[in-house]
Specification:
- By secondary structure, this protein is of the alpha+beta class.
- The protein folds into 2 domains: about 1-40; about 50-145, SH3 type barrels.
- The chain has helices at about 1-30, 35-40, 50-60; strands at about 60-65, 75-80, 85-90, 95-100, 100-105, 115-120, 125, 130-140.
- The chain has a 5-stranded antiparallel beta sheet with strand order 6-5-2-1-8, covered by helices on one side.
- A hairpin with an 8-residue loop joins strand 3 and strand 4 (about 95-100).
- About 15% of the residues are buried.
Length: about 150
C-alpha cells in the first residue's frame, strides 16, 4: 500500500511540480530555451497573446482592457495592474484575464488611454474572454502616476 502510494501518487506529483518550476524559470529568462527544456515544450508559445503575457509574468505591467460593446458614448474600459498575483488563460483555452489591482482609466481628447490611479480599497478584477474586445499593454512610463 505505501509503496503504491509513493510510486503512483507522490513521485509523479513531486517530479511534475519540480519540472514545472524549472520550465517556468527557463521560459522567464527570455531567449531560446536549452535543449532539455525545449524537449518538454518550453518556449513554444501558441500565439502572440501567450508570448506577450509570458514575458509580462516576470516583470508585471499595466493593461487597459476594452470590453465588447465599447463606444465613445458608452465607454467600457477596465484598467489594472498585471503582476505576480494576476493570471491569464493560455492557448488553446480562451484568454480570461485576472488583474491583481484595478485602476481608473481616462481617455484624452486625442483618444489616448491612460491609467490614473489604483482603486481603493485595492481589489482585483476577473474579465471573461467573451467580454474582451482588445487589450492594451502599457509601458511603465505610460502610467508613471500609478504607485506600485
Amino acid at each position: 500500500m505505501a509503496y503504491g502510494s509513493v510510486v503512483l501518487v507522490a513521485a509523479p506529483v513531486l517530479i511534475g511540480s519540480a519540472l514545472n518550476r524549472y520550465l517556468v524559470r527557463v521560459e522567464g529568462k527570455g531567449g531560446p530555451p536549452n535543449l532539455f527544456a525545449a524537449a518538454f515544450g518550453a518556449g513554444e508559445d501558441r500565439d502572440a497573446f501567450d508570448f506577450a503575457y509570458q514575458r509580462w509574468r516576470r516583470e508585471g505591467g499595466y493593461v487597459i482592457v476594452e470590453l465588447v460593446g465599447h463606444t465613445e458614448a458608452s465607454p467600457r474600459l477596465v484598467g489594472g495592474i498585471y503582476g505576480r498575483a494576476s493570471a491569464v488563460g493560455q492557448t488553446p483555452s480562451q484568454h480570461d484575464v485576472y488583474l491583481e489591482s484595478l485602476c481608473t482609466v481616462t481617455v484624452n481628447a486625442d483618444g489616448v488611454r491612460s491609467l490614473v490611479a489604483r482603486v481603493e480599497p485595492r481589489q482585483g478584477v476577473y474579465i471573461a474572454a467573451s467580454q474582451i474586445a482588445r487589450i492594451d499593454l502599457l509601458s511603465s512610463e505610460a502610467s508613471a502616476m500609478i504607485e506600485p
